[in-house]
Specification:
By secondary structure, the protein is an alpha/beta fold. The chain has 13 helices and 13 strands. Strands 5-6-7-8-9-10-11 form a seven-stranded parallel beta sheet. The radius of gyration is 20 Å and the shape is globular. The structure holds magnesium ion.
Length: 370
């Protein structure tokens, strides 16, 4: 299949509520959307880089730069034999994984639409519904956090993930466990701690979180292995895992018992499938992380999370929690049983609201083979 035309759109949407992590406080999300066309079919992708480089080095501007200068010239007019070929063509480009994923995932959507199958089917998914969890940002008080958790549980979510940071950690876990004795909750530190905080993690063991996500440095696996030997709570890596090789090494040295997969972080669906497979071979469960995606990115996550080893509820939640404005016609909702339906139509299976995107876009650019 020959890539005949690509369009990029930079879209910025306000969040309904500011979202705080150990590294950031965000009020808006700016994502690059890619529209790719071949033989009358159209595929869509969405970047996940936050506005500031607190999660990785990538931002919407670096995504745009990498697509514009380096990535798209590799793909325009090129004949791709299958959806995994994009990943092979881009393999020589180091880093820029969120930029690569933006177009790589659009091309998976395109292939699925051309074949008339759902993206889930093309990826090898086996679920028609996925279990949903929700990520909750750092709150100013424990009382307000508990109110938010009550609201989310009433909405049907099967587990909650609580962001923590130094000063809002051990007592948060304690208060949440005391208020909700049977709640499935996990903690996400986004790399805010070091091994000097070992006593804190030992204290947290007593409150039985399902896991603690990325407690130590964003580029570490060795200290995480040391930490895991000392604590009962399973460690789950997010930021440290960029490839299936990273996943293999982290599991083999005992640095992680669970892996958070984000297709954007690892360079797209082909790489995400490899991380999924390496984890499955080692009996390490995975779940699908979230980066406050708009509707297109959210749809990609739902299809990816239908693969068999995504056995834990991920951060895939209803769009209405985050945004007033929708860029797809069928916003994702969570049923009372805490699951979400995987769209059955071709590709990502949702109607992309192109008019809305074209009206909102702060920047656009069109590419055709030279
Ligand atoms: Mg995380």
């Amino acid at each position: 299949m020959r890539i005949e035309r690509v369009e990029l759109f930079m879209v910025r949407l306000p969040l309904k509520r500011a979202y705080e992590t150990s590294g950031s406080r965000e009020t808006h999300q700016t994502h690059v959307l890619a529209r790719v066309e071949s033989e009358g079919a159209v595929g869509w992708g969405e970047s996940v880089a936050p506005e500031q480089p607190w999660y990785s080095g990538e931002t919407p501007k670096t995504v745009w730069y990498a697509l514009d200068e380096v990535i798209l010239p590799q793909l325009l007019g090129v004949d791709l034999g299958g959806p995994a070929d994009t990943d092979l063509k881009l393999a020589w480009i180091r880093e820029h994984r969120m930029a690569k994923a933006t177009i790589e995932m659009a091309i998976w959507d395109l292939f699925a639409k051309r074949e008339g199958v759902s993206l889930s089917k093309l990826l090898g998914g086996t679920r028609t519904r996925i279990p949903c969890g929700v990520a909750i940002g750092i709150h100013p008080t424990v009382e307000s956090l508990i109110e938010t958790i009550e609201r989310e549980l009433a909405g049907g979510y099967q587990r909650v993930k609580l962001k923590i940071k130094p000063g809002a950690d051990g007592h948060v876990a304690e208060a949440v466990r005391n208020r909700f004795p049977n709640l499935k909750f996990m903690l996400d530190a986004n790399s805010a701690y070091t091994l000097a905080d070992l006593q804190l993690f030992k204290r947290i063991d007593a409150y039985h979180p399902m896991m603690i996500e990325q407690p130590l440095a964003h580029d570490d696996i060795v200290d995480h292995a040391t930490l895991q030997k000392e604590i009962a709570t399973p460690v789950c890596l997010d930021e440290s895992i960029h490839t299936s090789e990273d996943a293999r090494k982290a599991v083999d040295i005992g640095a992680t018992k669970i892996i958070n997969i984000k297709a954007g972080r690892v360079g797209g669906h082909a790489s995400a499938k490899r991380v999924h497979d390496v984890s499955a071979e080692r009996n390490v469960p995975v779940w699908c992380g979230g980066m406050l995606e708009f509707g297109i990115g959210r749809a990609h996550n739902v299809h990816l999370a239908s693969l068999p080893n995504f056995s834990l509820p991920g951060d895939v939640s209803a769009s209405e929690r985050y945004f007033e404005t929708e860029i797809i016609g069928e916003p994702f909702t969570v049923a009372k049983d805490g699951t979400m339906k995987v769209p059955a139509g071709p590709g990502i299976g949702v109607t992309v609201l192109e008019d809305v995107i074209r009206t909102l876009a702060l920047q656009t650019k069109e590419y055709r083979p030279g």
